[in-house]
Amino acid sequence: xxxxxxxxxxxxxxxxxxxxxxxxxxxxxxxxxxxxLESLYPVLRGTIRDHSTLKxxxxxxFFACGEDLSHNSPxxxxxxxxxxxxxxxxxxxxxxxx
Length: 98
What we know:
It is a single chain. The chain contains 3 helices and 5 strands. With 98 residues, the chain is of the alpha+beta class. The model has no long low-confidence stretch (mean pLDDT 94). Strand 3 and strand 4 form a beta hairpin.
């Protein structure tokens, strides 16, 4: 089981807690996590990734094991600690402004 932490507003939108666990088919990648998350909670489609291109939205970031994974390939393998469920995969809404 993969642990995922999502922003508060997306949890409210999908009516789920901020941290959830989902079963993801191997290989465990950003793409497989997001595909599974969106299939389980269809209301989240288009909130994290663009509907047509499936690219990460500009103000959404991905973190795991203290690393920013936002610019990694969506098909790159995730750290073993995430795959084993020891560490969560974080979906974070980035802040902007001055």
